[in-house]
Specification:
39% of the residues lie in helices and 24% in strands. With 241 residues, the chain is α/β, with parallel strands linked by helices. It comes from Phyllobacterium endophyticum.
């Protein structure tokens, strides 16, 4: 059952204050690197960008290098602090599914590790599509469900935390109604149980990297064994009736 919105808000205010405002890890850094590489391929430095589920706003400063940024999150207390740090970003606190952005159309919408915390994922993707201009792009990161379930010990959801992980096929199906999927791949191998725990071990990988760099890690990612699924998708143009 979906927890009350107030309980979700309390969870994410606390989680962001104790996690994202304190430190970032390799998962976040890699997601950011992929998204900025995608943004660099767009021939514009004045994009209208919306980040959905921006958390502490940790990524907004990088996004601002590519245009005007609007960022939204349920964590109202956290966004209050983000506004002080990043006055050039327009922060909007609230439930994305209930927020009204008027007639504004965005060139790019970025959302990192938000999809799995949304109850109606199809409606979430549809709203993103509605807010994009024709041909606009969605740049999305979400947890790779099979890898987290099979190869990682994850604490149970906290009070107010929704958890609905997807796999590659489920993500493709979710996006395909409104989007043309341009790229979909996994990044950042991470595991703490099973055979992948050995393959992802820093002790094992250190000598391998000394000889082949990160090619072994990239090979594991190519098998869809990364922690994160990254998707870049273009809004479909309406078919003339």
């Amino acid at each position: 059952m979906k927890p009350p919105l107030s309980l979700q808000q309390n969870f994410w205010n606390h989680w962001n204050a104790t996690t994202r405002e304190v430190h970032l890890d390799e998962v976040s850094f890699r997601q950011a690197a992929v998204v900025t590489s995608w943004l660099s391929q767009i021939d514009s430095t004045n994009l209208r960008i919306l980040e959905v589920g921006c958390g502490s706003g940790w990524f907004c400063g990088q996004l601002a290098a590519y245009g005007n940024v609007t960022a939204t999150d349920l964590s109202d207390q956290v966004l209050g602090r983000a506004r002080t740090r990043l006055p050039s970003v327009k922060f909007v606190a609230g439930d994305f599914m209930q927020l009204d952005f008027g007639l504004e159309e965005f060139d790019v919408i970025v959302t990192l590790e938000v999809l799995s915390h949304v109850e109606d994922q199809a409606a979430f993707v549809a709203k993103i599509a509605a807010l994009l201009r024709k041909g606009g792009q969605l740049m999305l990161a979400t947890q790779n469900g099979p890898v987290l379930r099979r190869y990682n010990r994850i604490p149970p959801p906290g009070p107010g935390q929704l958890r609905l992980w997807v796999d590659r096929d489920e993500l493709t199906t979710l996006l395909s109604k409104d989007f043309e999927v341009m790229e979909l791949f996994s990044v950042t191998p991470r595991a703490n149980k099973g055979i992948l725990r050995i393959l992802h071990s820093r002790t094992v990988n250190r000598p391998i990297r000394a000889f082949v760099g990160r090619r072994f890690e990239r090979f594991v990612e190519s098998l869809d064994l990364g922690w994160t699924l990254m998707a870049r998708a273009k809004k479909r143009r309406p078919v003339p009736g």
